[in-house]
Specification:
Layout: E1 32-35, E2 43-46, H1 49-56, H2 71-78, H3 95-103, H4 109-123, H5 126-139, E3 144-146, E4 152-154, H6 155-169, E5 175-178, E6 181-185, E7 196-200, E8 203-206, E9 224-228, E10 233-238, E11 243-247, E12 250-251, E13 254-258, H7 288-292, E14 294-295, H8 312-319, E15 323-326, H9 333-343, E16 346-351, H10 373-390, E17 396-401, H11 417-434, E18 441-446, H12 451-457, E19 463-467, H13 478-485, E20 490-495, H14 506-525, E21 536-541, E22 580-581, E23 591-594, H15 596-606
Parallel strand pairs: 13-15, 13-21, 14-23, 15-16, 16-17, 17-18, 18-19, 19-20, 20-21
Antiparallel strand pairs: 1-2, 3-4, 5-8, 6-7, 9-10, 10-11, 11-12, 22-23
Length: 607
């Protein structure tokens, strides 16, 4: 039996596990038989359950009985620390109680093991956590959970992603999981009855030396097999199937930022939100956010004599951002020219393509109908207006269509995805007719939902873009799913994390945000040209500065959650996603207070 350290390498203090098992890495082949690896017929059959239970340790399938003998478990139960619904034990800071509760919960084995592992991971019991995650992959790779949005959650994929994340950020564990994957054919809709699981549990390998960082060898192929674009912006695919975005012949990975500096008290829901590209509240003939913002260095919510206006454009340049995402058209060409000429920042110019009924002419309650000829014409006219206005501007990097339209908010894309994606392709064709430089055209999907329908119906869309908020480990199986289905480059059109948590104080929450964003960016890099799946061309961080209207009380910085999400306390706080805040709001729209995430991303983007 191996003994765990009293402290994890990151300073966390793991709780004691009375029976940690006899093996650090369980040799499943010793206790059973693998059949059908890498196929839909995968199955692991246990031959010696007693010996496997001894190897895994307490709480790890099939060992459930030894946990009941744990003196601390008995103490927790006697002290009534385990009373209540097990779902209430996910996002609390008593990780030991969480582990005990989930290990004894009446829940499907895959779900149960995942939340056991999550509690162990959060406490710093990394070895036992990895064993719990891997037990899912071996025994229950077809486990399915459901998100708040009633979309399927494939637990086997998530378990592999967590294992690889832990091995990557904790090289002191001296292990890595190689070759593991759970591919779900037909898994991009809400119908799980037609899912086909292709499972390979992979195997753990020992890292050569303790503390050594796991590095991937960059592929060296330079033969271009595919190229798009006739101007300065091109997409190229190499013989090794990696993708690269080139600007003026040089590699360009998108270090993007979502930028919508709204004045506190204004809201689109009340019809009061001004266009930030035109806003000049102090009447000095300069746009407020881009030129007049200043940094409250000591966070005293006052503008001290040394805190002069610097402007967000300068702060974005200082950050190392090279791209700004504009969601629907733009209104100030001179402003964007200055952004490009003086700060080197290019622009993703978007059209909502009927999202939120913008551009379709439909009412909110009617919703955009992608089979309606009149609405189609209205949306194509909107696209024509955008492209004709900006096609000759050198700062336009890419055209982006939609914003999570496939979720079906005020449209019928979710009910009729084929019609939606066929129209997306028609819009892409139209853009290429209008744009003499044939810049790349991307879709902005909501996650990988309907990825297969997109792949079948959008040959003229160059980039699969998607808003993705998966957790602190990055994006996991997303890259392989996209490569297998589309073989197109992938752009994360939104990723981010709130700087607020109900479980942590403000400083801790901001540290968690910074780490989350760091891991997201590193995952993008590790799947860019020559690395991993080789299909990542960058990402757009959401967002630069907090928007106070998101929770429908625009004069208040709300701390109540909108819905569940994969963050530190399991909740989304949409008003807290900024790298910078507006402080107490007394100097909106000018005051900026840096969060730790700003400096973390600056270090990553400027290296």
């Amino acid at each position: 039996m191996f003994a765990a350290s009293a402290y994890a390498a990151d300073g966390k203090k793991p709780f004691p596990i009375a029976n940690p098992g006899t093996e650090k890495i369980v040799n499943y082949a010793r206790y059973g038989e693998f059949n059908g690896k890498g196929s839909k017929n995968y199955k692991y059959t246990i031959k010696d359950q007693a010996a496997l239970s001894r190897a895994t340790g307490a709480g790890i399938y099939p060992n459930s009985s030894s946990l009941l003998k744990d003196p601390q478990y008995k103490e927790f139960k006697k002290g009534k620390k385990l009373e209540g619904n097990h779902w209430d034990f996910i996002n609390t800071k008593n990780y030991q109680a969480n582990f005990y509760k989930w290990a004894t919960a009446s829940e499907s084995n895959g779900v149960k093991l995942f939340y056991e592992a999550l509690a162990l991971e959060r406490a710093g019991n990394y070895i036992h956590a990895i064993k719990a995650y891997y037990a899912i992959v071996v025994h229950f790779p077809q486990s399915i959970g459901w998100t708040y949005w009633r979309t399927p959650w494939y637990i086997g994929q998530a378990a592999i992603d967590r294992i690889k994340y832990l091995c990557r950020i904790h090289p002191e564990l001296d292990m890595d999981l190689k070759g593991a994957s759970v591919i779900v054919k037909n898994g991009y809709d809400d119908n799980v009855k037609n899912d086909i699981f292709i499972v390979n549990p992979g195997e753990f390998v020992k890292v050569k030396s303790a503390g050594e960082k796991m590095r991937q060898q960059r592929l060296t192929s330079t033969e271009i097999i595919r190229s798009t674009g006739t101007g300065s912006v091109k997409l190229v695919q190499y013989a090794n199937k990696s993708w690269q975005l080139l600007v003026d012949g040089k590699p360009y990975i998108i270090k993007g930022i979502a930028y919508s500096p709204s004045k506190i008290g204004q809201s689109p829901d009340e019809g009061t939100l001004e266009d930030w590209m035109q806003s000049d509240h102090n009447k000095n003939n300069k746009i407020d956010g881009p030129y007049d913002s200043w940094v409250d260095e000591n966070k005293n919510n006052r503008q001290d004599p040394n805190e002069n206006p610097v402007g967000d454009f300068h702060l974005l340049w200082q950050l190392g951002a090279n791209t700004m995402r504009i969601y629907h058209h733009a209104s100030n060409k001179a402003l964007l020219k200055d952004l490009y000429n003086n700060y080197g920042i290019m622009v993703l110019v978007g059209d909502f393509l009927g999202a939120y009924t913008i551009g379709s002419g439909a009412s909110w309650y009617q919703g955009t109908d992608y089979t309606n000829p009149q609405q189609q014409e209205s949306m194509l006219n909107s696209i024509k207006s955008m492209v004709e206005e900006y096609k000759n501007e050198p700062y336009v990097l890419m055209w982006v269509l939609g914003n999570e339209n496939n979720y079906g908010v005020a449209n019928n894309a979710k009910k009729d995805p084929q019609s939606y994606y066929k129209f997306v392709n028609r819009a892409a064709q139209y853009i290429k007719e209008l744009d003499p430089y044939k810049r790349p055209v991307a879709v902005c999907n909501g996650e990988v939902i309907f990825l297969d329908v997109f792949a079948a119906n959008c040959p003229d869309v160059d980039v699969f873009g998607l808003n993705s908020y998966r957790g602190d480990y990055g994006f996991g199986h997303l890259w392989k799913c996209a490569k297998d289905e589309t073989d197109k480059p992938v752009l994360i059109t939104e990723y981010g994390c709130p700087a607020y948590s109900s479980l942590y104080n403000q400083q801790e929450a901001e540290e968690i945000q910074a780490e989350y964003l760091k891991n997201s960016w590193l995952d993008i890099l590790s799947n860019s040209d020559g690395f991993g799946q080789g299909n990542a061309i960058g990402g757009v961080l959401f967002e630069f500065v907090d928007e106070w209207w998101k929770a429908y009380e625009p004069a208040k910085h709300d701390t109540h959650t909108q819905w569940p999400g994969p963050f530190s306390d399991g909740c989304v706080y949409e008003e807290w996603f900024g790298l910078t805040s507006q402080g107490d709001g007394s100097h909106s729209p000018y005051m900026r207070q840096f969060r730790k995430a700003y400096f973390t991303m600056k270090e990553l983007w400027r290296e």
